[in-house]
Amino acid sequence: MKEVIRDDGRRARYNDALRAGVVVALPFAAVVGLFGVSFGVLAASTPQLGAAAAIVMSAATFGGSAQFAALSVLAMGGGSIAATLAAVLLNLRYLAIGASIAGSMRGGWLRRLVAGQLVVDESWALAARPGGRFEMPILLGAGALLWAAWVAGTAIGGVGGRALGDPAAFGLD
Q1: What is the rounded CA–CA span in Å between residue 146 and residue 118?
Q2: What CA–CA distances, in Å, run from 60 to 53, 57, 118?
Q3: Residue, of 48 and 54, whose pLDDT is higher
């Protein structure tokens, strides 16, 4: 990518890479959004969780497989400790993913914390470069789009899922 300095001094290359991250993640976002709808429908029909908690969980956790695992444990009558343990075990892979990307992250602890929230399997893979490097603007653009798709999907499923009735009737159980 050609680097151009704009009048305001920002690097156009960074912004172009952010946009490229969004564009390259579009196909993934469509699927992530649909899975989010499924999660929202199931969560809305689970008395232990509900739609509002599922939306907050999706915004704060952004870990689809772990969220489905926790939801499954709760739906089967398990307690919150078992649900949390299932989610933690599924997300242990993020220790290795985080270690692999740590050298590419810049900024203070708050910036790194926010950027770390956007590291999911898809954004990590899209940002990977030869030699163990990662292009952070690609990761951030892709991660932000995927996060928005997941949260929006959860909200749509959680709110609209009640109108569908029993999720098992649609094969979503």
Answers
A1: 8
A2: 10, 5, 11
A3: 54
